[in-house]
Amino acid sequence: MLVTGNEILQKAHKEYYGVGAFNFVNYEMLSAIFEAANEANSPIIVQASEGAIKYMGIDMAVGMVKILSQKYAHIPVALHLDHGTTFESCKAAVDAGFTSVMIDASHHPFEENLEETSKVVEMAHSRGVSVEAELGRLMGIEDNISVSEKDAVLVNPKEAEQFVRESKVDYLAPAIGTSHGAFKFKGEPKLDFERLQEVKKLTNIPLVLHGASAIPEYVKDSFLSTGGDLKGSKGVPFEFLKESIKGGINKVNTDTDLRIAFIAEVRKVANADNTQFDLRKFFAPGKEAIKKLIIERMNLLGSSNKI
Ligand code: TD4
Ligand code: CA
Ligand code: ZN
Q1: pTM for the model
Q2: Atom of ligand 1 nearest to the CA of 51
Q3: In CATH, what number is assigned to the domain containing residue 208?
């Protein structure tokens, strides 16, 4: 059943578990997410970036989610706009049927971010839609980064408190040292868990971890064994994901892991038979790989059997 983001995340916030927010760009990714949720008995957040919406068409994206959420009526599903860049983009998503939107104005000065977020909150709440915002910048923490540099890129907990109180945003993504993609850390993985706990204490709302892909060893190996190159790639270690949940993260954004798992299977089929051109022979194993990874992630985050 299609529900608001708040409905899913308030429960996760109260019971201290994480819900995967999985990105999709096509039917295969989306149906893998639903099938995984069905097997694990887990709520899900399915999210589309502006790029994904452009690729699929907004009505197709919403239409597929609606059909699947009717088919799996017992699963609570939120449809979320990931990294909305403007008020207009958030409004278009609300108009089309999204039940949750992110306004990402975190690269603007604090006051501007607050103003833009408040505007989106007002619009979305009047339509029964939940809102996510971001504070700080997504960037890895390097060993030699100074305290003042850290304060420049990571979330400031006191600002977070004011931001949440004044904007009335439903959930917040605090930058604590993750980044998007397959190359998250130059040296040893490092996240600022103290900062996270401080933000949770001061805001007391659901929190979001962006750039949460783990790049599990077996997925990486599967990609490498097909001749793929992921030199220097590093994800968020599983223990860090668990630690984040303890620190108050409730929405765990995951895209890169799904992409790598899917494409490893496509590469495998292409390598094994260079006469193959039936799309289904490539995509069916890709979809299965995503499904397996998501079920494992649900177990790790604690959202399994929470329906
Ligand atoms: O917000 N996200 C997903 C970002 C998706 C970007 O999509 P486009 O390529 O269409 O712009 C995350 O935080 C996921 O982080 P991850 O660790 O999976 O890279
Ligand atoms: Ca941002
Ligand atoms: Zn993100």
Answers
A1: 0.98
A2: 10
A3: 3.20.20.70
